[in-house]
Amino acid sequence: MLNRLDLLQVLRMKSKTELHVISSADLHHFASALFTAAGVVPAMAEEWAKSLVWANLRGVDSHGVLRIPGYIERVKRKDINPAPNMRVEKRAGAIAVLEADRAPGAVAMAAAMAEAIARAREAHVGWCAARNITHAGAVGYFALQAANVGMAGVVMSASGPMMAYHGAKVSGVSTNPRLPWAR
Questions:
Q1: Whose CA is closest to 131, among 104, 110, 108, 162?
Q2: Could you give phi then psi for residue 23, rounded to 5 degrees?
Q3: 6-43: buried (b, 16+ CB within 10 Å) or exposed (e) per residue?
Q4: φ/ψ (deg, to 5) at 130
Q5: Active-site option among 20, 28, 135, 166
Q6: Residue 120's CB: how many other CB atoms inside 10 A?
Q7: Domain ranges of the chain
Q8: Which residue, 80, 84, 129, 154, is most buried by CB atoms nearer than 10 A?
Q9: HSE toward the beta carbon, residue 136, CA cutoff 13 A
């Protein structure tokens, strides 16, 4: 811990901040390696890292690689399952239900969107509910999966209330819809 004299010396020092540019490929590789080292299945580590780097590249740093230490801590606490048994538990026409088994949220959401796209290819509309997921991350990433194959995509996630309605004194809502479409 710094004492008062040390703190004054630190305050007097000039900033030596330097800019370090890391390629997105190197950042993706590093992020994936961190997840793999924490015990995450390699293919899932790759997908998870891809979504985080995507967020950083779009300027959504709050949902990018800065979340890795917290995610790894959740893996250590077993809040996130590093090797989940994800499976589609039900398919009925346009609708599917994915059991994510506490998978990394980005991995479960990517799987849910892939299933929704598969349902839409068969029934012209597709919907997949993913249950038992963890933090979804930048949900726009998953909606763009649909746009990239010429479909409209709607992605929503839910959690405990974190935002207050205008004029409210307490939190009452937490939904995150994203609506991209193909051009």
A1: 108
A2: -65, 155
A3: eeeeeeeeeeeeeeeeeeeeebbeebbebbbebebbee
A4: -110, 125
A5: 135
A6: 19
A7: 23-76, 87-175
A8: 80
A9: 25
Q: How many residues does the chain have?
A: 183
Please give the pLDDT value at position 19: 74
- Indicate the burial class of 44 (C-beta count within 10 angstroms; 0-12, 13-18, 19 or more): buried
What's the CATH number for 23-76?
A: 1.10.1530.10
- In whole angstroms, give the CA distance from residue 39 to residue 84: 11
Q: Which CATH class is domain 87-175?
A: alpha beta
> How confident is the model over 124-144, as pLDDT tens digits?
999 999 999 999 999 999 999
135 among known catalytic residues = yes
What is the C-alpha to C-alpha distance for residues 107 and 47, in angstroms, rounded to an integer? 6
